[in-house]
Amino acid sequence: TGLGFSLIRLISTHCIPANYLNMRRGDPAFRRRLRDKRRAQQQKAERRGAQLWDPAKNEKLQELFLQEVQMGQLWLSRGEHQLGVEHLSNALLVCGQPQELLKVFKHTLPPQVFEMLLHKIPLICQQFEADMNEQEYLEDDRD
Question: Which domains are seen in the chain, by residue range?
Fold first, then answer.
């Protein structure tokens, strides 16, 4: 009986699923649905990419970046470190090369301000992920 169960188990776990997959893959409707699904995903990614690299939006992001850096510098010069770090973290969020900007901040900011900024980075990332998830959710609702 142990051999019989082993044989049944072997057939049910290996042969039947392999046969099912071959039948499924050979089905013209399956291939069409898979192709349509991949096309839809590619079009969605292209739309998202076009939205990201829109020159008008890119220009607005650059303006926002400069504004946030200037506001951060202004607050830091007034001794308001927390507000300055808030604006500099916003600049990091919209910056195209945040690692390079962090290197610049490391050399130009006072050490305690730079430390405050480093502690703020995980919060920035969480906020960014939440914003992106919300945006994807809203885009999925439109489709």
Answer: 2-52 (no CATH), 55-142 (1.20.960.10)
